[in-house]
Amino acid sequence: MRILYALLFLALFSCKGNDAYILNPSVGKINKILIVTKTTDWDGNIGKSMRNTFGELQVGLPQPEPILSVSQLDPRGFGSMMKYHRNVLFVTKAEKEAFVVKRDVYARPQTIIYLQGTNEQSILNMFEKRKSDIVKTFLASDVRYVQGLFEKERLDDSKYKTLENLGLSLTIHDKFKTVDDTGEFLWLRQHLLSGIAKTGSNNILVYSLPLMAESKIAESISRIRDSIGKVYIPGSREGMYMITEEAYTPYTFDTEIAGKKAFETRGKWEVKNDFMAGPFLNYTIVDKEKNRLIVFEGFTYAPSINKRAFLFELEAIGRSLKFK
Asked: Which of 228, 230, 285 is nearest to 257 (CA)?
């Protein structure tokens, strides 16, 4: 009997010491956050400021879509299944101002941000100061979540000649099929079966270029894309190939991939002399050690439907890139 009690105690102690046994799986759509705050605050200036921030449109998409979708819940309703939301922002009044990020509090994986202010103006000031951090934290959390899903159904990237020759690794889920793999250029495609045409697809391109001065990289990305499209991404007839949409100027930002300086470009692609078009995401990575640029690009074709989620999956794959 003593042995039985000892085993039961050990089991209970082990469960308490290992969150994997006591935390439920989190729930919630990608790029969506639950904001827990009083309804009176949500209906006032605090809610207005947050809706304006999270409702800012994602650049490079053909249809207007916000960076993050939000829903609001009064604190009295935060219980039961609601506490299992993957991304949660608590906004409350307290004696001291505070900004805290916690992981896996009620579920796994989960990111909860606590934003406290002493009054309405204090909360507004805190949010204005931290809003960029909040957006980046939730987006990074979703990137890790999607990468975790893809890791479970990951392609064996060692079988691709281009990735092997370039010394790269990517977490790509197994729904992608090979279109072209020359050893210098890789094109993978996932059929989405979405939209009116039922011919939607997510696409991945990987290739390298000779290193150039960093000051010239951003201004060269569209020209490089067009030259690559002309050689490797043909349209349905002669003279048709993928180019950067001429009527829309892409946006380029500084970022970091695999610990290296990179340029993130978001814009729209189209097929020259045709009507096909969609959004693209391009990471041009500066690899000084090997005197080269590594380019990862994802582009989506999904007529008639929103594309934010599809492009975000490509972002998660791009940000999984590692140098072997």
From this structure: 285
Reference 279, options 135, 54, 68, 65; nearest CA is 65
Nearest to 141 by CA among 87, 99, 100, 102: 87
Domains along the sequence of the chain with CATH: 18-151 (no CATH), 155-323 (3.40.1000.10)
Torsional sign, CA 71, 75, 77, 78: positive
**How many whole angstroms separate alpha carbon 196 and alpha carbon 316?**
26
Paired tokens of 71 = 């829903």
Reported as type and span, the H/E element at residue 89 is: strand 87-93
pLDDT tens readout for residues 101-113: 999 999 999 999 9
Q: pTM of this prediction?
A: 0.90
Number of H helices, E strands in the chain: 7, 17
Q: What is the pLDDT of residues 20-47, one digit of tens each?
A: 458 899 999 999 999 999 999 999 999 9
- Dihedral pair phi/psi, residue 28, rounded to 5°: 130, 145
Rounded to 10 degrees, what is the CA torsion of 210, 215, 218, 223? -60
CA-closest candidate to residue 30, choices 109, 119, 115, 91: 109
- Residue 20, classed as helix, strand or coil, is helix
The Cα 24–Cα 84 span in angstroms is 7
Q: 67 phi and psi, to 5 degrees?
A: -60, -45
